[in-house]
Specification:
Elements lengths: L28 H8 L4 H7 L5 H13 L3 E7 L3 E6 L4 H7 L18 E6 L9 H7 L9 E3 L10 E5 L9
Parallel strand pairs: 1-5
Antiparallel strand pairs: 1-2, 3-4, 3-5
């Protein structure tokens, strides 16, 4: 029988720390995406042959129970939302009615979704080169700057400070 104690792996060396199923490079969130789109578990297993039937069933149970939920706090308003591992901060904001600008539609083609990570930076994916390049052009760049469209939640609490585009970007 498989060891289920390590259902999710968040190795920063594998896909930048996105939660994956151990022994695969399959992000855990893909199963939830399949189910939400109306696909069945067999379709998922056919498309991702490295995932075992047991892994998929256990992951589905955990996703449905909220066991892989992440608490994300948006400052300065103090809005607290529950998001899923593997979601971007932008996705979580949009799903919960939090106003986070994103002129390019979340494609890393602008810096309007720039935000400052206050706590929980270790619970986000490692910034990839494309994000770092884009951030290098951002107004108000700080060491804790991230793009909401690129920062993936990998588990654990995260607090971010949203930047008011019309205000001074120093926090």
């Amino acid at each position: 029988m498989e060891d289920q104690t390590h259902l999710i792996s968040c190795d920063k060396g594998i896909l930048g720390g996105i939660p994956v199923l151990p022994g695969t490079r399959v992000p855990a969130k893909t199963l939830l995406d399949y189910i939400q789109k109306g696909s069945c578990l067999d379709d998922y297993l056919d498309d991702f042959p490295t995932v075992t039937h047991l892994q998929a069933h256990e992951l589905l149970a955990r996703l449905q129970s909220g066991a892989l939920a992440v608490r994300l706090t948006f400052l300065p308003e103090g809005v607290v939302v529950t998001a899923s591992c593997g979601e971007t901060i932008l996705d979580a904001a949009l799903e919960n009615g939090v106003g986070l600008e994103h002129e390019c539609g979340g494609n890393c083609a602008c810096t309007t979704c720039q935000l400052y990570v206050v706590t929980g930076g270790e619970n986000l994916s490692i910034p990839e080169e494309v994000e770092l390049d884009r951030l290098s052009t951002a107004e108000g760049l700080q060491a804790n700057s991230r793009l909401g469209c690129q920062a993936l939640l990998t588990g654990g609490d995260v607090t971010v400070h949203l930047i008011d585009s019309g205000a001074d970007k120093a926090v």
